[in-house]
Amino acid sequence: MSAPWPARRSIISLQLLTQLGLDLGLSLDRCLHETGLSPVQLASLNGEIDAQRELQLIANLIEALPDAGDLGLQAGRRYHLTTYGAWGYAILSSATVRQAAELGLRYHGLTYAFTRISLSVDDAVASLYFDDNALPTTLHDFIVQRDMLGALVVVRELLGSTLRLLNVELRQTAPADVSPFITAFGQMPRFGATHNRLDFDADLLDNPLPRANPQLVSACEQQCQALLTRHQWHQGLAGRVRQLLLQSPGQIADMEQVADRLHLSSRTLRRRLIEEGTSFRALQDEVRQTLAEELLDAGGLSLEEIAERLGYGELSNFIHAFKRWKGITPGRYQRGS
Questions:
Q1: What's the fold here for domain 8-216?
Q2: What is the pLDDT of residue 274?
Q3: pLDDT value at position 137?
Q4: Minimal CB count within 10 Å: which of 32, 89, 136, 191?
Q5: How is domain 233-336 classified at the CATH fold level?
Q6: What is the pTM for the complete model shown?
Q7: Which residues, including other chains, have CB under 8 Å from residue 62's CB and lie 6 or more apart?
Q8: Domain residue spans of the chain
Q9: Count of CB atoms within 10 A of residue 291's CB?
């Protein structure tokens, strides 16, 4: 079973966590141990990383700072709206708290959370749940603390004021020192609970937001969709198929060739892709579109050569497909790029 978070994510969260480690006296090498990242790669503001690297960094922090029972809370305070890029601007521009919550959860994969966050409304109480069932056991407390306080920081910045919580519940056992938790949440959490959750007044969901901007929220949502699609590009069996299609020299492989390289029958490959909500033809189309845009942007090849590399027997077939993807001919796209 695949993890509930995208396999790829922005490097910004890892940068924040590394800075936390440095601020607490750890060396850069200790923070990055076994992450496979160099200091130069860490400094890439626009980079993306495998989620597993961030989990390794979290494990490094926990191992190096075993006595910090509130380590996740210290991390969570660093996740401000401005660290989330298009996702943050989209919810900041929403008309109401409800719209912001719905949009934020719809593009949950663009956040830095490893818990699965959901919203439930029961009469007068709204609850944010943080499901930690998919997490490695040793990372539970840190990630839940970070994700819950990080979400609270976002809501407070969204409102421009403090959010009064009705109830706070954590599945972890009570630490020796509970004062950091009281400071973070404004009350004593109930430890050893069945769920990780934050309760607040449901009426708050209909509050208008001060920075509402319908045009900006629409533009940011389109960017969120594009980013989420890119992050999910390598996930699951569909991701492996995409990678194999991209590796095909000279032309796009067919289903039988890809199935053979995956040691599956074409029938099994078709069935498993359907289970992931896609098909081989759709993935082949995605890869062709991606390669077509890259080859057109790069220049140096004729349309006939590009069509041949993409596996089209006739140039007209390529032109027809490109118009379906982009709404314009590849020649016009190239002249405008």
A1: H-NOX domain (3.90.1520)
A2: 87
A3: 94
A4: 136
A5: Arc Repressor Mutant, subunit A (1.10.10)
A6: 0.72
A7: 71, 138, 139, 142
A8: 8-216, 233-336
A9: 18
